[in-house]
Specification:
2 helices, elongated, mainly alpha, about 55% helix, about 70 residues
């Protein structure tokens, strides 16, 4: 069981400069991260699906921040 601990993911933190869209995406991502972290074995199909959804949201968040849609710059 201790070996599975290394697969745990950290939640995303919120910044005052995050746009509403970025905050909403981070909230969605944190919900998925909570679900992922509660899995007994994240190496299952469900774990892989959650990890893919989390990765997709993180890419969207980074894309928004880099495109200046997010006014944090």
């Amino acid at each position: 069981m201790a070996a599975m601990q290394r697969f745990k993911k950290d939640k995303l933190s919120f910044l005052d400069t995050d746009s509403e869209t970025v905050q909403r995406l981070k909230e969605e991502c944190n919900i998925l991260i909570e679900q992922y972290n509660t899995l007994e074995n994240p190496l299952t199909d469900q774990g892989e699906q959650l990890a893919a959804q989390i990765t997709t949201l993180i890419i969207k968040i980074k894309g928004l921040k880099e495109s200046n849609f997010d006014k944090s710059r």
